[in-house]
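If your schedule permits, I should be very grateful for your opinion on a structural question. Please examine both parts with care and let me know of anything in them that strikes you as inconsistent. The record follows directly beneath this note:
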Amino acid sequence: MNRTFVIGDIHGAFLSLQQCFERAGFDASADRLICLGDACDGWPDVAEVMETLSSLPHLVYILGNHDQWALEWLRTGNPSQAWLMQGGTACVKAYPGGMPEPHRQLLENALPFFLENNRLFVHGGFDPGTPLEEQDTDILAWDRELIQQAMELAGQNEDTRLTGFSEVYVGHTPTIRYGSDRPIKAGEFWLMDTGAGWTGPLSMMDTGTHEIFQGDPPANLYPPSSGRLFI
C-alpha cells in the first residue's frame, strides 16, 4: 500500500466520491481507503457507490447506523419506516432486482471499528471505559455523546483528552451542525462527516498528512428532489 485515506459518510453520492478520488489522486491499486460507514442511503447513486467500494482491493469498511438499517432490510425483507424516511428509499430504489452479492457482503462484513497504531476508526462513538471488543454495536454505530463532549472541550480551548488513542476518526455527526463544511479536529477526534447526506460536501483525508480533499456538495450535483427531505 501507498497512502491511507479516510472518508466520511458518502450516502449514495457517487459523483462526489469520484471528485474526491480525482482531487486526491487516489490510486485504487495501491492506496487504502478507510470508509467510516453509511455509504448507502440518501442520494440516488447507491449502487454505483457500493460497486466502486466493493471493487477496491485495500478497502476497510466500518459499519454505520444506515448500514445496520440496510442489513435489516436485506435479512428480513421488511424496511424500517424510519430508515425509508431517512434516506433508505434511495437504497431500495437502487436495487429493484435485489442487491448484488458483492454489495451485500460489503455490509455483512463491515467492521464495528478499526484500530491500527493506536488510531481508532469508528462510525459513531464509543464508551471510553469499556474495552472496544466489549462495546455494543449500537453504541459504535449510533452514539454521539462522546463527540459532543469533545466539541464542548474544544470550544473551551481545553486540551483535555477523552481517550487514550492518539487519533479517533468518526463519521455520523455532520460538521455542518457546528457551522463547518470541513472536517473538524476536537482534541484527538477528527469529525469526517461534513454533511454530504444533506447540504455539505463529501470529505476525504490523507491520514499521513491530514490533507483534506473534497467533492462538491451532492446537493449541487443531483436534483434536489432526489435527496433526503429533512434533518
Remarks:
- The longest strand covers residues 202-206.
- The CA atoms of residues 73 and 103 lie 14 Å apart.
- Residues 4-220 form a domain with the Purple Acid Phosphatase; chain A, domain 2 fold (CATH 3.60.21.10).
